[in-house]
Fold:
Amino acid sequence: MLQSLRPVALYLCLPALLMSVGMVLFGGRSAEAVIGDSGNFYYTLGIMLTMYMFHKRSRKRGSTLWEECTLEYRGLSLKRAALLGAAGLGFAVFFSSVITVVPFPRGLMDSYHSSSDGLRNGTDIGLAMISTVVLAPVAEEVVFRGYMLGRLLRWFTQKQAVWICAVVFALCHVSLLWMVYACFMGLLLAWVCIREDNIAYSIALHVGFNASVIPVQFINSRGAWREAVFGSGFRIALLGGVMLFLAVLALGRYRREEII
Structure:
């Protein structure tokens, strides 16, 4: 059990350690100042170093990172991957619309917004997009569904392993609202990973989830578009409903696709 948590601990701790080193090397600034100025840089660097360490450890064991975490791109069905990406995007927009429309307690909303402000803080928006939409999904699928879930399946039943992995994944998201969403997301990602025996498909789904920040950020940066799309609670709820319908449609189509 503890062995399955080691990759998770490395993934969580390395960016924080790099940020601490940055605080010491560059004037002993506060954590808030470092996160505000360079948070995205340290997070991205931490992800890249984590993946490199996984790669080195795999080589020492006479294997490869891709073999150990069941990541295979040969024979990948672009159609199934695209359907999963579309489903992820739809679920993410639906969740965001629910958070916006439903009057949750202020404490929950403050916690949610504080953990969602990464794209507005840090070195630059381009780096934040790359780390959020590309690097984070790949690294988190390697860590949680590749290493952790794979090891848990040796000691627990499939249902138990999926739930443990999903709960740990949710707890890593700090905010309660994010935890609820991440638990659902973790269950779906684990189901796809087991169904395909290839985390390339769960990566596609995860990229779809995270890619929702791109259209939202684009629309919010244009006043007229923001008013047209997000100008009222009804429009936001309608958008969320449409995206949920499309997500369920894409997921249903994916389930009917034959796995070779």
Summary: The mean pLDDT is 85. The two ends are 32 Å apart (CA to CA).
